[in-house]
Structures are given as C-alpha cells and as structure tokens.
Amino acid sequence: MSVKITEPIDGAILNRLHGKETAEGLDITVKGTCPSDASVAVNGQSATVNGEEFSASIRLQEQETTLIAEADGESDSILVLYDKNSFKRYRFSLDDDIYFLRDLARSNYKSIFDNPFLALWKRLHDTYGTRTNCNLYFQCDDFNLTMMPDQYKSEWADNADWFRLTFHALQNDPNEPYIHSSYDEVARDYDKVVNEILRFAGEEVMNTFTTIHWGEATVDGCRAVRDRGINGLCGYFVLHDGRPKVSYYLDREHTEHLSQRDYWKDTKEDIIFVRHAIVCNNGAFPPEKIPAHLGEVAANPYQGEVLELMIHEQYFYPDYQAYLPDYAERCETAVRWCAEHDYEPVFYSDGFIGNPG
Fold first, then answer.
1. Of 343, 323, 322, 325, which Cα lies nearest the Cα of 334?
2. Host H or E run for residue 339
C-alpha cells in the first residue's frame, strides 16, 4: 500500500463550514491511507497514524494550496481551494431563454422592462436585490439573435450590475445537443450567441458562468467554452440508473461528490462546477414546498453556502404545454426565502464564486 490522501479530494473547495476559520486561515483535517504504522507527513507536518490510516491538521491561507502527503519515500498530492471569508450567497439563473428577446424585437418597447418576463426579474431585483444570469439560445422557430435590435444597448449596460447574459445553446432541440459534440461544434454555437450579445447588449452584460443546455457536454466541448472565458458550469450532478446525468463529462465518482456539495473544481481542466440547489419549475416544488426544500439544503454544511436557484423561461408563457400559472410566485418564494435567511445576491464571476474575499 502506498500513501494516498482520501479527504479532501483533489479540487475540493473548502469554506468556513469545513474547518475552523480564523484571521490566520482555515484549519482543516487531511485524511488518508498509508502502509501500516508508517511515518507520514503532510506538507512537512507529522500526521497521526492509526494502523493504515492517517490524519493531519493543515492550515489553508491561500486560495489554492497543494497538499502533499509523504511516507517511506512515496508521496501523493492534491490541490484544494479555499473560499476565504465565505458567506451565504445565492444567484438566480434562467435557462432556455429566447422568447423574451423575440418579444423585445417585435414590440418596440420604450424599455426592456416593458417586456413581462423581464419585468418580473426587475421587480425581484428592486424588492430583494436579486441578481440574475440569463442563458440564451441563438434561435427558435421564427427568430434568431441577429434579429434583435441594438436600440436598448445602453439600458442593458445600465442594468448589468444585476442582470447578465451568456451562452446556453444553439436552440432547444434536439435533447442533449452537446453530449457527443466536438470542440469546434460547441465553439461555433458559443460564438454565434456571444457575438450577438456583444452587438445588441454590450460587453458589460457578459458573464463567466453558464449552464450548457441539458448540463451535458464532452470534455472537449467544455474546453471550448472555457477557452472563451467561461470559468464555471452549473448542473444537477445526479445519478440516474447509476449513470451521471446533467453532469457534463464528469465520471460517477465526481458526480457523487458534487451531488453533495455546493461546488468543486476540475483542476486538470480549470473549470469550476456549481450544483443547482433547486429547479423552480420542477413539479416537486410548488410554492408551498420551496421553503422546506431550501431549508433542508441550507442546513447541510456542504450544500448551504452557495444556493444556485434556477428556472426555465418557457414555463412562464400561457401557450406553453407545461405552463405554470404560479411561475412568478415560485420565483419570488425562493428569492424571499434567501433574503429572509440572510443570503446575499451575487454573480459568481465577481470574485471567487461571488466572494470578493
């Protein structure tokens, strides 16, 4: 048996709830396995060894720290991240978005917030301070982003402190469009969406976190968006029939880890993943069920520091087959719960996952 660090795992993101935080840093416990009764040191500090297991107290001070365990001439190393001076925070993300832009293009409103969908998010921002990230399609049946006028460009910029736009997919269909896609295919669609956002709304509204449609993409596809400025991806990170779903390219081990965490970083690919705390259009979450669910998530020290709230645009519209008459109520219930429980609205692109540090 060789020495191996088992806890935390490589890419783990640790905050005040995962150790003892002081002005000097975050004290965590590093655990692992080793040859029986070996002499083990972690980052030069002697570890306590009990049979074939070891533990050591290590202080994290930097945002990234390499942990090195050594025993009998062998070593194992991982990289962990420190969410310094962490605090409770949330963001609302919108998926599958394009219809509100079609309405803006056709209606010649005086303000973008004359559109009913955007009016909802403006009201939530004005009331609760909510920050919202909108993940866009390039096209639907009878509209594409090249048809969106730039007459509102200054208004987009004026509201970019709380409402931002980024890439989601080329279009709604087919399902899981990027599950087998190449780097070039995802890059092509990303560029089509983002080039139009820059034209009609400006660089101020761009964001560095998104959700790729269906939360599925090859590692090459994720590299394509990473190379274009996307630092993080959001998803469900669940197992369905034992297989990862809405988990991008992650294997079962890392999907299971993220299913119980707020966040994790693939250190090899330099991509941060954030787990959705709730999908508000899910049938399991009528307004009266949302507070209890968020309360349960928040009570878990590994899940309650960063709440990623999400809903899909199409459920807002009465002509959609699965229209939700209580769409706005669901959104406001989730946001109100966050406000009442001292969660601060953030964008993950501002600082380290929304934390200026």
1. 343
2. helix 327-340
* Region 199-210 average pLDDT: 98
- Per the DSSP assignment, residues forming a β-bridge with 257 are none
Ramachandran angles phi, psi of 137, nearest 5°: -80, 155
Residues forming a β-bridge with 95: 312
Q: How many CB atoms lie within 10 A of CB 157?
A: 14
Q: Which domains does the chain have, with CATH numbers?
A: 4-82 (2.60.40.10), 89-345 (3.20.20.370)
pTM of the entire predicted model:
0.97
CA distance 46 to 65: 18
Q: Given 3-state DSSP classes, what are the helix, strand and coil percentages for the chain, each rounded to the nearest 5?
A: 30, 30, 40
Q: Indicate if the pLDDT at residue 1 is higher than 80.
A: no
Predicted confidence at residue 357, as pLDDT, reads 79
Bridge partners (DSSP) listed for residue 185? none
Q: Identity (one letter) of the amino acid at 15?
A: N
Across the strands, what pairs with 76? 69
Interior CA angle at 277 toward 102 and 140, to 5°? 20
User: What are the tens digits of pLDDT across the range 68-120?
Assistant: 999 989 999 999 999 999 999 999 999 999 999 999 999 999 999 999 999 99
Query: Alpha-carbon distance 146 to 225, whole Å?
Result: 21
Sheet containing 13-14: which strands, arranged edge to edge? 13-14, 74-82, 64-71, 40-42, 45-46
The dihedral through the CA atoms of 326, 348, 12, 59 has a sign that is negative
Please state the separation of Cα 277 from the chain's center in Å. Answer: 10
Rounded to whole angstroms, the Cα distance separating 354 from 357 reads: 9
Burial of 57 (0-12, 13-18, 19+ CB in 10 A): middle
Residue type, 34: C
Asked if residues 104 and 152 have their Cβ atoms less than 8 Å apart, the reply is yes
Distance CA 252, CA 145 (A): 37
Record the tokens describing residue 356, joined without a space: 């200026």
Conformational region of residue 71, where left means phi above 0, alpha means psi within -120 to 50, and beta covers everything else: beta
**What span, in angstroms and rounded, lies between the C-alpha atoms of 34 and 1?**
6
